[in-house]
Amino acid sequence: MSHTNRLLIIAAVMTAFLVFMLGSNTARRAGGQEVVLDVTGYDPRDPFLGHYSRIRLDIAILDLRDLGGLDEIQAEDLVYVALEPNEAGVWIASSLHHERPETGPAILGLVTSVYFRGQADERHEVVQIDYGLNRYFADRATALELDSILRDDSRSPRLIVSIPSDGRALIKGIEIDGEPQYERLW
Amino acid sequence: MLIALSAISFVGANWDATPKLLVFALLLAVIWVSLFAAGRAFDCNAPVLGHALALLGAAMFGITIMLTAQTFNLSSFRNTAVLIWALAALAVSLAVSSRPVMILATLLSALWVWLEILSPAAPDTMWSYALVWAVMLAASSRLNSSVSVNLLGLALLPWLINALVRGLESLGMEAHQIATLTLLSFGILATGFALLRHRQVPTAGVIAGWCGTAAIIGGALIQWPLGEYEAFVRELNRSDTGPGMPNPALYVPLALALSGGIAAMAWINGGGQRKRTGLGVAIAALTAASFPFIVYIEDPVVFLAVRILFGTAYYAFCISLILIGTRADARATGTLGIAGFILHTAYVYWETFSGLLSTSLFFLTGGLVLFGLSWGLLKWRKRLPTSQGDVS
Fold first, then answer.
1. Nearest by CB: B95 against A7, A50, A75
2. How far is B189 from chain A (nearest CA, A)?
3. In this structure, how many other beta carbons lie within 10 angstroms of the beta carbon of residue A184?
4. Which residues of B touch A22 (CB under 8 A)?
5. What distance in Å separates residue A137's CA from the closest CA in chain B?
6. Burial class (CB in 10 A: 0-12, 13-18, 19+), B79
7. C-alpha to C-alpha distances, B73 to A53, A109, B54, nearest whole angstrom
C-alpha cells in the first residue's frame, strides 16, 4: 500500500473520531434535562484560543448544614448533587449522594476539598466541587459583555446546563438578563 | 509547527465571523491536506517534506480536538484525548516510518500520563502507562529512533518512582522500605534490559542505561540519611522511636524476589566475567535489600561498622560495573560505575573528613586507590584477548 493511501486511512479514522466526539456530545446535550445555574466569573483571555470566561458555579461551594444526604464526605469523592428549582427558576443544590438519586436531576461532580468554617458551635463543613464546567468559550463581543456582567453585582448571568442520565453536565448556553443564548452547531 | 500555531490563532481571530461547523470543516480539511501531501511527498521520494507534513498532520489532529472542544463548549474534554492524540501520532509515524512524528507521539504519551497523575479524577499510580510505554518503545525500536528511546527512558524514571512510591505507600510501607524496593526495581529493570540488549534488541541498552543511572544514583542517595540517624543513635543510644519495622510477610518476599532477579540477570549478563561482575552486583542487591533493617541496630559502634559494610558493597557494585565497562560494547556501563564511584567517594569524604590535614590524607588515599585500580584493570584488560582467543 502506498504512503498516501496509508495516511488517508489514518485521516479517515481521525475524522471519524472527531465527528463522533462532536456528534455524541451534541446528542447528549440535546437529550439531557435542562437546568439554569447561577455563576460568578473572572476575566476572558487567551492569546491563541480566542476568548473565554472563567466561570464558577454557585453550587461549586456547598455548605453541608444546608443539604440533605451524605454525612461523610472526603476529597476526591465523586458525588451527585441533587438539584431543585427556587422561586426565581434557578436550580440550587438540595442534597448530596454517592449514588444517583432516582428522582429529579442530579449533577455529577468531583469533591476537590472539604474544609471547616466558623468556630465553636458555628463550626461546620464546607465542600468544594468541580463539575468540569469552568470555562465558557464565546466570541469576543459576548465574552467581553459577559465579563462586564460578571463584575456587575446588580446583574446575574446564568449558565444553561444539560444534564444527561449519567449526571455529567454539558454547557448548553448562557442566559444574560433573562435572555438565553444557546450553543449552536453552525 | 508554525503552520499549526497559525491555524489555532486563525480560528481564535475569526471566532465570531466564521460559522462553527465551517471552523470544524476547515480544521478537518487541514488534517486531510497535510496527511495527503505528506503521503504524496513520501511516494515521490521527498522524505524531508514528507516528515514535515506528517508532523503537521499529526499535530493538527490534537489541535482540532482542543479547538472543537472549545468551539462547541464540550465540557467532556478529558485527558484521554491526549492519549488518543498520542496513539494517532504513533499510527502516522509507523505508516510512513517518521522519527519526528514518533518523537511527538512519545512526548504526548508522557504528557498524558502526567496530566492523569495530576488530575484528582484519575488514579495516582497510572499503571496503564506501562502498556502505552511498551508500545511506544517497540515502535521507537522499530524506527531506530534513539531520541524517542531516550525520551522514553527519561519518562520512565519519574513515572515509575511515582507509581512505586504511591503503590507501596498504599501497602503500608515506610519511606526507607519504599526507597529500597524502588531502587531494587530499577536494578532489575536495568539488568533485564541489559539482557535484552545482548539478545540483539539494540535500543534496550538505552533503557538499561537510564534505569542503571537511577539505580546507581539511588544507591548512593539512600545512604545519605544514615549519618544523621547514626548521630541520633549515639545521642540517645536507642532506636525505638525510629522508623517502623517493615512488615516481613510483605517486604521480605518482595525484596528477595527483586534481589534474586537482579543477581540471576547479572549472572547471565556477565558472560565470561560472571564471577567478577555477577557476584558484585548480587552482593550489592542483597545489601540494598537489607538496608531497612540497619535502623534497628542499637549499638552505635555496630551501626558504624554496618554503614561501612554498606558503603563497601556499593563500591563493589561500582567496580563490577567498571569491569563490565572494559568491554568495547559496554562503555556506558563503565561510565556509570565511575560516576557512582565518584558520587560515593564524595559522600564518604563529606561524612568522614573535616580539617585540611585529613582532607589531604583522604585525597592521598583516594589517589593511591585509583592508581591501584587502574593498574589492576590494565593488567586484567591485557589478559582479555588471550582468554577470548582461548574461547574461540
1. A7
2. 33
3. 10
4. 24, 68, 72, 74
5. 6
6. middle
7. 12, 18, 29
Among candidates A7, A136, A140 on the partner chain, residue whose Cβ is nearest the Cβ of B15: A140
Which residues is A110 bridged to in the sheet? A78, A130
What ipTM did this prediction achieve?
Answer: 0.72
Contact B124, B166 (CB under 8 A): yes
DSSP secondary structure, A109-150, as one string: EEEEEEEEESSGGG-EEEEEEE-S--EEEE-HHHHHHHHHHH
Cross-chain CB nearest to B16 (options A47, A140, A171): A140
Q: Which of A5, A110, A183 is closest, CB to CB, to B121?
A: A110
Structure confidence at residue B244 (pLDDT): 56
How remote is the C-alpha of B57 from its chain's centroid? 30
For chain A, the structural domain boundaries read 32-182
pLDDT number for residue B271: 64
Quick one: which of B177, B298, B170 has its CA closest to B245? B177
B328–chain A nearest CA distance, Å: 40
Rounded distance between C-alpha atoms, residue B348 and residue B352, angstroms: 6
Distance between CA atoms of residues B95 and A89, nearest Å: 55
- pTM, rounded to two decimals: 0.75
Domains of chain B, by residue range, sit at 171-352
Rounded Cα gap, residues A39 and A60, in angstroms: 9
- Tracing cell 473565554 back to the chain, one arrives at A52
Q: Which parts of chain A sit beneath pLDDT 50?
A: 44, 47-48
Provide the terminal-to-terminal Cα distance of chain A, rounded to the nearest Å.
38
**A120 to chain B, closest Cα gap in Å:** 31
CB atoms within 10 A of CB B340: 24
pLDDT in 10s for each residue of chain B, 392 residues = 677 677 666 666 656 667 778 888 888 988 999 999 999 988 888 889 999 999 999 999 988 888 888 777 776 557 888 899 999 999 999 999 999 999 999 999 999 888 888 777 667 778 888 899 999 999 998 898 889 999 999 888 888 888 888 888 888 777 778 888 888 888 888 888 888 877 777 788 888 888 888 888 888 887 777 666 656 555 544 444 455 565 677 778 888 888 888 877 777 766 666 666 677 777 778 888 887 777 677 777 777 788 888 888 888 888 877 877 777 677 777 888 888 888 888 887 777 766 666 667 777 777 777 777 777 777 776 666 554 444 33
With an 8 Å Cβ cutoff, are A3 and B43 in contact? yes
CA terminus-to-terminus distance, chain B: 54
Please indicate whether, in this complex, the C-beta atoms of B73 and A183 are within 8 angstroms of each other: yes
Q: Is there a contact between B20 and A184 if contact means CB atoms under 8 Å apart?
A: yes
Chains A and B form CB pairs within 8 A to the count of: 132
Which residue in chain B has the smallest CA separation from A139? Answer: B16
Coil/strand/helix, residue B99:
helix
Give the one of A6, A52, A185 whose C-beta lies nearest to B96's C-beta. Answer: A6
Those of residues 33-92 in B touching chain A at CB distance below 8 A are 35-36, 38-40, 42-43, 50, 54, 57, 61, 64-76, 84, 88, 91-92
Distance from CA of A162 to the nearest CA of B (A): 11
